[in-house]
Amino acid sequence: MDPSSPYSYKILEHPDSTIRLIKILSIAPEIRCEFSVVSLKDEPVFSALSYTWGDASLKHTIFIDGGSVSITTNLAHALRDVFGQWSSGCHTAPEDTQWLWADAICINQQDTNEKNHQVPLMGAIYSSAVRTFAWLGVENEQTSLGLLGIETVWHHITELSHFDWISTVAQRYGSDLQHWVENKLTPEDLHLDWQRLYTCLPEQLASVDVFDAIAELTEVPYWKRLWIVQELVLSPHAVFISGTKTTTWEKLRIVVLWQSLFERRCEFSVRPSIVPYKQWISLTKTPLKGPRAIALARGIKSLGVLNHKPARHEDYTATTKSIMTGFLFAQRNYSYQATNPKDFIYAMAGWTDICIPVDYSAEKTISQVYLEFVELWLTTYETTLDDVHSEYDMRGLWFLDLAGSGYPWKKTPDLPSWAPDFAGLAEGQTEDTFVDSFKYHKYNVPNVFPGKSNVPRLFSGQLHCRGALIDKISEISPLIVPRVIDQDGDGDGSCDTWRLWVVDCIARQRLQFDKRDKLFEFACAFLCKLTPKPHPIHSYLFLTELAYVCEKWRNMPRASFGRYLGLDDEQVHMLSVDPIEAGRRIYLERMARFLSVGEPNPEDYVTIKFVEYAFADLHVARKRMAYTHSAGAGMFPPLIQSGDLIFHLEGYPLPVVLRQKSTGSYDFVGACYIPKFMKGQAGESIKNGQVEVQSIILA
């Protein structure tokens, strides 16, 4: 075959059981390989590759059996590193076992029918591989220091006698045993030999913090790829590589478990003097999200245990547990990236029992795949209705967390407003204008509907459920813009327009309500992502910040501000401290002191509250406040309209915004946060018949 001619893939005779493998023959001056077709039934010896495709426009040509194959540059780098590990690295292997499975090469990407058969096999492929090479990227300082950091901390943990329990616990990560350990261990039980660790670091880590290096490694693009969850969960032996550097999943798992427990159990007050304050903050406030999610998924998969409650799952079949594992993961899978939007569903099939038939053809739309997913959930929910609320904390309409026409992310074509938009959410996260939706699992909201729940039904793309109309939007704030602090500290005022709206809104209500109640409502709504009930310091800062923006943009003195809102003398006196200038100055001075060599004050509770408040507007960025007819203030999706209706839907705990269509059905705008409805207050009205429960059709 002419080496310049594209390789012509031969059709697999049994695509449901046979796979192609490649052997890397050479990597210089070009990468040359050969194919072998094997049956998984024959238990072949091979390794699998886990990697991120990278920029699809950056191509590299390799040669297989005399023909050329175009692959991404990332894959070419990964093949070179695997070859190096096999030939002279830490994972040498006999030549007859140096066979590799890599999806972009071993599956004919131009043959949709083959993809439809081979993708469902991927779970079996990674489970059967003797080793999975997880390629983290081209070797650079970030990957080298991170991998070295994992090795260093792992050695340190395993050398300490009081950590003899951690290897056993790590194998059950995510289970009830971890929950038990978290409650039994004291901060001292989790302490390392800090003196030795910080004085005996490898030379490469001497100028950086070892834990920062590990944290930065977990930020490489690899951890954002959706398929790695399946690949790492199912692999019996995974090794991470980048160039010549390597570590194993077993070592990373132990480090992740230690950090996870350490974050939960250790506070500022137990910080050893040798550990810089900045590093201590990193350890207690910066979870290793990527590896931790994999560790949790592996623990759940191997044990069939969810939410730390194994005892009550005894009657569940393995299939039910596995399906529920998939649905739980689906609540968060939009935080990953996938090349094909259908993969947000298909990528779960190998390690859970969410088995939606794989169909990459153009005739099968993305919307159809997502609706099939919802239909499977509703069927599962109906058969496990009595248990999923308490055991899995999942309500019938949990997928509304991932839906809504009230958000500006790019919508999947033909997808109903109520359906989970995995691809839209995932793509939106990569943009500066992303607006996160409200997630009900963040709030402990009781069920407001009495009796046994009815199962929602799906008919012709419409969702049929029950609901109760509880309120209506009357006034809407400007968009909440995150506070941008430039060198002069002035900005253009866009970040304060919604605050001025709050002041005017409260003033308009002053004859009907106690101002302190109104202020508290708005403060609760503003801090909805941080705490269900603001600390008095939070409320005080919110009030004084409102006074500050009125003085800055309207030349309104504090006394006039107090009269405008009808505040009493005591409340006006509280406004003497400027939260933006004095508060920020105090915060920065204290943080500068904490980050210095000197001993900090670890019990400075006030500073922690300042920090929480300083970042509050980032958590509600690009949403809107609104005022309703009966409940008052709340936080809402950005694309709401005056007159939109607020409902409670059976099967979903948060209040939601609906917009009635001319057909009588409703457009699902999105969930919202209204302080006066967050403790199930509407339940009594529903129970007493003051609020009518009606049939709702969402389109």
Quick summary of this structure?
The protein is α+β, with helices and mostly antiparallel strands. Helices cover 38% and strands 15% of the residues.
Folded structure, characterized:
The chain has four domains: 18-135, no CATH class; 141-302, no CATH class; 387-472 and 644-687, no CATH class; 480-621, no CATH class. It is globular and about 85 Å long. Helices cover 38% and strands 15% of the residues. β15 and β16 (666-671) form a beta hairpin. It is an alpha+beta fold. It starts with 17 loop residues before the first strand and ends with a strand.
- DSSP, total strands: 17
Number of helices, counting only DSSP H or I runs of 4 residues or more: 27
Average of per-residue pLDDT values: 83
The helix content, as a percent range, equals 25-40%
The total number of structural domains is 4
Distance between the termini: 56 Å
Would you identify the regions where 5 or more consecutive residues have pLDDT less than 50?
A: 304-315, 485-489, 587-603
- Structural class of the secondary elements? alpha+beta
Shape: globular
